[in-house]
Amino acid sequence: MYYLKKTVLSISFLILTTSSLPVFSHAIMVKSQPEENATLNSSPKQIDVWFNDKVGNEYKALAVIDNAGNRVDNKDVQQELLDASHIYCTTPSLSSGTYTIRYRVVSIDTHIVTGKFKFTIKTP
Ligand SMILES: [Cu+2]
Questions:
Q1: Are 119 and 101 in contact (CB under 8 A)?
Q2: What pLDDT shows up at residue 10?
Q3: Which residues surround ligand 1, an ion (CB under 5 A)?
Q4: What domains are there in the chain, each with its CATH number?
Q5: What spacing in Å lies between the alpha carbon of 53 and ligand 1's midpoint?
Q6: What's the pTM?
């Protein structure tokens, strides 16, 4: 009886621990270029965002918004062919000021992930 109890306990422990492991992962941003809250001396040419896992090619979006709320990137978001965790877009030459980068991707677990962060270009 004691052994049976022990076995049942270990089995339920196994079920509990394995079921809490995510089968599909939910993407989170892990790196960007420019970095979050970075102050740059000049305009970036490209905005790069990396996630902890590959993301879907559909629904991806990346935008750069200026202080007045205008979208200023080249609207050319792409996903890197050999690294599906990386999306990027290009920007024209931006003047000094603070900009917001907004991103949206779909995770492998089908969840939509959105986020935003800022960077600043110094006054020369
Ligand atoms: Cu998720």
A1: yes
A2: 62
A3: 26, 107, 109, 111
A4: 24-121 (2.60.40.1220)
A5: 11
A6: 0.80
